[in-house]
Amino acid sequence: MSAGYSPSYDNDKSVLAFRGIPISELKNHGILQALTTEANEWEPRVVSTEVVRAQEEWEAVDTIQPETGSQANSEQPGQLISFSEALQHFQTVDLSSFKKRIQPTIRRTGLAALRHYLFGPPKLHQGLREERDLVLTIAQCGLDSQDPVHGRVLQTIYKKLTGSKFDCALHGDHWEDLGFQGANPATDLRGAGFLALLHLLYLVMDSKTLLMAQEIFRLSRHHIQQFPFCLMSVNITHIAIQALREECLSRECNRQQKVIPVVNSFYAATFLHLAHVWRTQRKTISDSSFVLKDLEVLAKKSPRRLLKTLELYLARVSKGQASLLGAQKCCGPEAPPFKDLTFTGRSDLQPHSS
Fold first, then answer.
1. What are residue 340's phi and psi, to 5 degrees?
2. Measured between alpha carbons, how far is 132 from 104 in angstroms, rounded to an integer?
3. Which of 85, 139, 164, 207 is the most exposed place for a label (fewest CB within 10 A)?
4. Which has the closest alpha carbon to 302: 277, 271, 276, 266?
């Protein structure tokens, strides 16, 4: 019997009281069978009308709605949630306590401030700063398992990546299969907050990027080149946050007069480039820190090129001409993948021993 729980006896030691034992352990020790046997041998002398009524109501129940975590998802159970609906939730709730924590831009002093003023990207237009602050505020929010919208976001990500049509618990080993480090996804969101989950939701719910997301997910489960998909995605969201704060995305945001769509596309483009490097350069999990470091430098330096690469890739995917995992097959054994696409360079990783 594990150290997490211990049997305790009453004074006459006639009753064995188990505290905190999971159902699986009860089954292993035959306790449920013993209790069932005792219950079958026991016959009540008088059956109250309340018991009869409760039994009738129980037998009249056709189905039981599955619970998500510790709380049943009674609001639109089993329904997927779109990115716009999830975003609207954050636009309507009170986030003032989280907004106080954000630092919209990087504080520079001395020569760094002068160099950024003379040669750096332009400042974000005044009318876009509220939208930028919303993005950074969401990145300060954690995952609340009691919030039905948060639960639906998790459920949607799980269903779209796995193809499952059933709800799953908000805590459990199945999240490790998606690339979280443990049974609770909330523990992996440090540095990116709920924005990391919104980015995953955007990736799987946008019809243009869903195929890309599924292909990257399959690559992450490769028997040699596997990597934690969701954890890698959280790191890329963190890169997007830093690029936004360092004003690397200001020029593109000003051009499009939008912030959230630019940040979403930048996230997707960065993830696409990582997958390309990972597959073509045969990276493994031991290379992850080197790949992410080079990826961050590249993404901040050339965001427009990354976005253009994503645009070209998605255009080819819509025509069935590009595939992360099937590029070599459809282009021929000697043809380079993404022949017509210009990726933003290769990672200059130093040779190292795993």
1. -90, 0
2. 8
3. 207
4. 266
Q: Minimal CA–CA distance to 132: which of 83, 171, 99, 110? A: 99
In contact, 238 and 191? CB cutoff 8 Å:
yes
Query: 317-339 burial, b if ≥16 CB within 10 A, otherwise e?
Result: beeeebbbeebeeebeeeeebbe
Crossing angle for the helix pair 303-318 and 210-220, to the nearest 10 degrees: 100
Instruction: Report the alpha-carbon distance of residue 52 to residue 103 in Å, rounded.
Output: 62
Alpha helices by DSSP H, listed for the chain, are 23-28, 31-41, 49-59, 83-92, 96-99, 110-119, 129-138, 148-162, 174-177, 195-205, 210-220, 229-245, 250-256, 260-280, 288-301, 303-318, 327-331
CA Rg, the chain, in Å?
26
How is residue 219 written in tokens? 């690559």
- Burial-class residue 250 by CB neighbours within 10 Å (0-12, 13-18, 19+): buried
Amino acid of residue 221 = R
Q: What are phi and psi of 39, to 5 degrees?
A: -65, -35
Q: What is the largest CA-CA distance in the chain?
A: 91
Total-model pTM: 0.70
Below-50 pLDDT ranges, the chain: 1-48, 51-52, 54-77, 326-354
The string of pLDDT tens digits covering residues 202-231 is 999 988 899 999 999 999 999 999 999 999
DSSP bridge pairs for 9: 16
Q: How many CB atoms lie within 10 A of CB 95?
A: 17
Torsion angle, CA of 20/22/27/28, rounded to 10 degrees?
A: -90
Rounded-to-integer distance, Cα 208 and Cα 242, Å:
25
| pLDDT digit string, tens, across residues 108-143 | 667 666 665 656 678 999 999 999 999 999 999 999
Contact 203, 268 (CB under 8 A): yes
Amino acid occupying residue 315: A
pLDDT given at position 47: 43
Residue 108: its pLDDT value, please? 65
Question: Which residue is associated with the tokens 């959230």?
Answer: 260
Neighbouring C-beta atoms of residue 235, cutoff 10 Å: 24
Q: Quickly count: other Cβ atoms within 10 Å of residue 7's Cβ.
A: 12
